[in-house]
């Protein structure tokens, strides 16, 4: 799935602590999402989120003054933290004090009704078949007022036939002219639109689920929830959704805006859910409605602000499905590609290749993915990066083969560190050039009481990148609630590299989810490679707590000097970390105000010999309004950092090793989120590596209607360093035009003046001519994938023009009741319909 943030164009990393990925980040999602997302530096920020939300740290080499700050814990962190904790504990428990009109958390139940034929799937509920199903009507607010009935009624009706399940949704609205519906592109965030989500836990294991999301135009977004994790803050997630968007399912949707709201019809084949049980079916289900203009989030179950739709164990139950045909998943998807390519300094060369993918349900809860001669020409280009610190950059994964079920392979080792990071496969981490993949296989799902992930990928040599084989195994066993214990093993073998012939990583982890929203996470990992077999471990613990008033995270870990997970992501080694990050989120009764936020942060890192490497501390105060706008201020942020090697900041300018201390200040604001024009911006100023740095950042999106959208980002850095004065301008313009939901054109033009060849462009026309089948025309000049290297190196550029054709089908199985081939749904009956209005 190609998920991309609609408003992002260029990433500008403005951090020193890249291992923790950010300092005092400010959320840019809807206010309805604020209290459930943990805005810490430590846990989950992607590069994209960091780039948009940073509060930077600009300091200088004042080593003589560092000793004055040794007692920072006692003077500036310890007592404020005690005050925060005591205040939270003594604050009235408003979540539990409900009025008679407030819901109580009970197990919700619904029934599906069997029908002889499929209902009419035209986005309306005019077909009399829908009246056979009893509507689900009890929706309660998660935001803004927890547990209160929704301000606008919603109804869901459920039907099924032998091979599909159908959902008819009616979202009533007292002011239908104010419904926000502007996104026609599939797999793109719908946070700026009204939208609806359907959760299906088809295994009924209360831990994992599929999610299907759509807006009033019928536009689709889908994904998975794994181990009841809140994927909104996941390492790779780009679109801000409640789930891991890497999974792409085959389903149909249509929607209509009516005189009293909007309606939608959804059809999901049982084969999409890989569902093979045929009698006495019980599913976990849940539904979520988001009303954009009100920033209101309504759910059928799991409506507590600290839960949300990702709390699969609190979903309701669906009964009534029985005597259905086999829904075993079996999809074959070949592709063909033709075009031309030119690398820097070379002439144009022809491109002609082909390959394919197979997806097969080994069991109802176990899926096999196979890929041959994998191509990623249609993958969205990375946002250009200018890095203000010397550490590695975490670029989110966008390639479909690795995105699907990526949550199963997640093994955190603190902050953004990962034992396994799929961007290390098939992309050179230093140059960003694609490394061809010969073949790969993946098995994901459940086996007995274990959650299982197996992967094997073979790449061929390309340029300076040798051929290699990557084997990955991940296993977790459920404990009580959402707790688990697990392990991971990774083996990399390089066929042509005698200096680095192998690299192995292994680890154990355990998550304990305790009562009262406490959770503990433990990990221990080690690596082995040629000449590096000792002092190669990483061990730590993290503690999180969240409530309606207080969110808290803390991390303690130790990374040995020789720890070297080559297929993982670790910006720092030879490090001992202590991180503490409390966040207060009170909701006073102030006109127009949804929430206040008060956050303080402290991170101290030494090497294993207790020599200070990084120290950061600061505080943030923010006001978040009901309409999605916000104002946030960071009065002062202190950063102390030791540079052990020169840092190439800009072209031929490098910052020498030494101890640096700097302070900076940050002011940020964001506009209401229900308008055609939305924006956010900040200004930062302060000291930086012995000099000064001033940064101005602006991001804006304009959506005049469903067809057109424009997004632009401008980041302007003015440096005054002892090594020289210079300006770096990083900008982008993304233009999207949707002929319909199935034919879209996207252009992304980027500029980075730190690069000798500053401009790059990615143009893509996509025609989704049948479910899961696409025709692409692509032109890319520049770099498609960014380097993970921390230094701002000049990258190899290429130009590529390609035409790609994919065709997805389901082979018939050789028995009655087998799966029929995928057939075009009603929307593809006439080519002319592609050019109709998106409504």
Please mark out the parts with pLDDT under 50 across 5 or more consecutive residues, or reply none: 1-100, 231-240, 815-839
Secondary structure: number of strands: 42
How many strands, which pairing sense, and closed or not: the largest β-sheet?
Answer: 24 strands, antiparallel, barrel
Mean pLDDT: 83
Principal-axis shape = globular
Class of secondary structure makeup: mainly beta
Q: Helical content, roughly?
A: under 10%
- Number of separate helices: 3
The portion of residues forming beta strands comes to over 45%
Rg estimate, integer Å: 26 Å
Q: First CA to last CA: what distance?
A: 23 Å
Question: What are the key terms here?
Answer:
mainly beta, 24-stranded antiparallel beta barrel, 8-stranded mixed β-sheet, 3 helices, disordered C terminus
């Amino acid at each position: 799935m190609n998920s991309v943030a609609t408003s992002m164009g260029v990433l500008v990393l403005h951090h020193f602590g890249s291992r923790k990925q950010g300092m005092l980040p400010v959320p840019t999602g809807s206010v309805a999402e604020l209290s459930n997302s943990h805005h810490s530096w430590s846990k989950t920020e992607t590069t994209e989120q960091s780039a948009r939300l940073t509060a930077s740290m600009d300091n200088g080499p004042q080593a003589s003054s560092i000793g004055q700050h040794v007692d920072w814990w006692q003077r500036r962190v310890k007592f404020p933290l005690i005050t925060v904790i005591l205040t939270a504990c003594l604050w009235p428990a408003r979540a539990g004090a409900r009025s008679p009109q407030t819901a109580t958390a009970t197990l919700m139940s619904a029934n599906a009704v069997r029908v002889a034929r499929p209902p009419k799937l035209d986005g309306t509920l005019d077909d009399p078949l829908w009246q056979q199903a009893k509507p689900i009507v009890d929706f309660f607010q998660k935001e803004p007022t927890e547990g209160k009935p929704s301000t606008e009624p919603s109804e869901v009706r459920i039907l099924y036939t032998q091979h599909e399940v159908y959902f008819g949704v009616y979202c009533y609205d007292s002011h239908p002219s104010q419904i926000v519906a502007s996104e026609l592109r599939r797999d793109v965030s719908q946070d700026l639109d009204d939208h609806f989500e359907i959760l299906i836990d088809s295994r009924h294991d209360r831990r994992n689920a599929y999610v299907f999301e759509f807006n009033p135009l019928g536009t689709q977004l889908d994904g998975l929830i794994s181990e009841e994790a809140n994927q909104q803050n996941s390492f790779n997630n780009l679109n801000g959704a409640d789930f891991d968007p890497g999974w792409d399912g085959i389903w149909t949707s249509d929607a209509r805006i009516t005189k009293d709201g909007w309606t939608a019809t959804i059809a999901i084949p049982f084969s999409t859910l890989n569902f093979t049980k045929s009698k006495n079916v019980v599913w976990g289900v849940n539904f979520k409605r988001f009303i954009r203009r009100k920033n209101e989030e309504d759910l059928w179950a799991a409506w507590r602000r600290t839960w949300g739709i990702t709390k699969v164990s609190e979903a309701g139950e669906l009964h009534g499905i029985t005597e259905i045909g086999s829904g075993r998943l079996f999809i074959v998807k070949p592709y063909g590609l033709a075009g031309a390519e030119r690398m820097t300094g070379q002439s144009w060369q022809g491109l002609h290749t082909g390959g394919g993918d197979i997806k097969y349900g080994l069991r109802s809860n176990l899926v096999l993915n196979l890929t041959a001669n994998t191509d990623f020409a249609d993958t969205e280009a990375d946002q250009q990066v200018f890095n203000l610190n010397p550490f590695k950059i975490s670029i989110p994964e966008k390639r479909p083969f690795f995105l699907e079920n990526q949550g199963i392979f997640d093994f955190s080792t603190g902050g953004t560190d990962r034992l396994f990071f799929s961007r290390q496969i098939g992309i050179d981490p230093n140059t960003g050039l694609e490394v061809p993949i010969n073949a790969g296989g993946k098995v994901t799902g459940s086996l007995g009481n274990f959650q299982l992930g197996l992967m094997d990928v073979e790449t061929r040599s390309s340029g300076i990148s040798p051929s290699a084989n990557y084997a990955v195994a991940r296993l977790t066993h459920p404990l009580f609630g959402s707790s688990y214990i697990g392990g991971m093993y990774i083996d990399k073998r390089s066929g042509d590299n005698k200096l680095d012939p192998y690299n192995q990583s292994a680890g154990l982890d355990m998550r304990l989810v305790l009562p009262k929203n406490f959770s503990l996470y433990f990990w221990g990992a080690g690596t082995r490679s040629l000449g590096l077999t000792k002092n190669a471990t990483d061990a730590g613990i993290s503690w999180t707590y969240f409530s309606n008033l207080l969110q808290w995270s803390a991390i303690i870990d130790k990374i040995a000097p020789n720890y070297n997970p080559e297929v993982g992501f670790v910006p720092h080694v030879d490090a001992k970390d202590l991180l503490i990050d409390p966040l207060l989120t009170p909701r006073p009764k102030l006109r127009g105000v949804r929430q206040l936020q008060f956050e303080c942060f402290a991170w101290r890192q030494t090497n294993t010999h207790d020599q200070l490497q990084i120290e950061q501390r600061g505080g943030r105060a923010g006001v978040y309004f009901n309409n999605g706008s916000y104002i946030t201020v960071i009065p002062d942020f202190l950063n102390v950092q030791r540079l052990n090697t020169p840092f190439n900041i800009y072209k031929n300018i490098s910052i020498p090793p030494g101890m640096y201390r700097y302070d900076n200040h940050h002011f940020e604001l964001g506009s209401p989120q229900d308008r055609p024009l939305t924006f956010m911006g900040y200004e930062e100023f302060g000291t930086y590596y012995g000099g000064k740095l001033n940064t101005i950042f602006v991001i804006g999106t304009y959506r005049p209607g469903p067809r057109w959208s424009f997004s632009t980002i401008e980041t302007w850095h003015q440096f005054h360093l002892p090594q020289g004065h210079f300006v770096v301008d990083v900008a982008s313009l993304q233009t999207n035009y949707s002929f319909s939901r199935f034919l879209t054109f996207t252009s992304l033009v980027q500029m980075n003046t730190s690069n000798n060849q500053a401009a790059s462009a990615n143009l893509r026309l996509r025609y989704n001519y049948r479910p899961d089948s696409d025709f692409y025309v692509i032109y890319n000049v520049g770099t498609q994938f960014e380097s993970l290297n921390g230094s701002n190196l000049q990258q190899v550029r290429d130009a590529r023009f390609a035409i790609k054709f994919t065709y997805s089908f389901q082979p018939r199985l050789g028995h009655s009741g087998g799966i029929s081939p995928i057939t075009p749904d009603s929307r593809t009956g006439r080519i002319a319909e592609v050019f109709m209005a998106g409504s």
